[in-house]
Design brief:
Blueprint (H helix, E strand, L loop, with lengths): L1 E4 L8 H14 L4 E6 L5 H8 L10 E4 L5 H5 L8 E6 L9 H7 L2 E6 L3 H17 L5 E5 L2
Parallel strand pairs: 1-4, 1-5, 2-3, 2-4, 5-6
The structure holds adenosine-5'-triphosphate (ATP) and magnesium ion.
Length: about 140
């Protein structure tokens, strides 16, 4: 199963929500989770790399990836029934590499806030996703 966490707005809370969801799915639901980190700053994979000095076994793998890597990765990801792949998307819409990712999604989670800039970006993101993928439910999460 492939779940996207996205919004065109930078700083909307995509990376934070991705981690919270991954922790919930592994710890509470006992699902196997892999995160594809497509954030510009690759903030999640950088943190995961640093955390390797700790003794605890990581709960899930965080794989740094570029949008253009997705078609090649898609073939081997999420094949097992229990596995959930979460993609932390970058805050941009001007990259054709997003199209196959949007099309492949089983669900899309969109963190947003009610400020002026956030609402416009959220609506644009929702409109584009809706055009490319009519099957995946779009779930809005009000964060602030
Ligand atoms: N629910 C929340 N309440 C308060 N602060 C939050 C919440 N979610 C995220 N933040 C804070 O907002 C900032 C941006 O969050 P985050 O990095 O998750 O956003 P993002 O959408 O991934 O950003 P980017 O587009 O740069 O990748 C961070 O400092 C984070 O700690
Ligand atoms: Mg981010």
């Amino acid at each position: 199963m492939l779940i996207l966490i996205g919004n065109q707005k930078g700083g909307a809370g995509k990376s934070t929500l991705t981690l919270l969801l991954a922790n919930y799915l592994t710890q509470q639901q006992e699902r196997r989770v892999t995160i594809l980190d497509m954030d510009y700053q690759q903030s999640l994979s950088a943190k995961a790399e640093k955390a390797k000095i700790l003794e605890n076994e990581p709960l899930y793998e965080i794989v740094p990836a570029d949008l253009s890597h997705f078609p090649a990765m898609q073939r081997k990801l999420g094949k097992s029934r229990n596995e959930i792949v979460l993609i932390d998307l970058p805050g941009k819409m001007d990259d054709d590499g997003l199209i196959p990712i949007f099309a492949a999604a089983d669900a899309v989670i969109c963190p947003f806030a009610f400020d002026e800039f956030s609402v416009d970006s959220t609506l644009l993101f929702a409109m584009v996703i809706g055009r490319i993928n009519k099957r995946a439910p779009l779930i809005f999460v009000l964060l602030r």
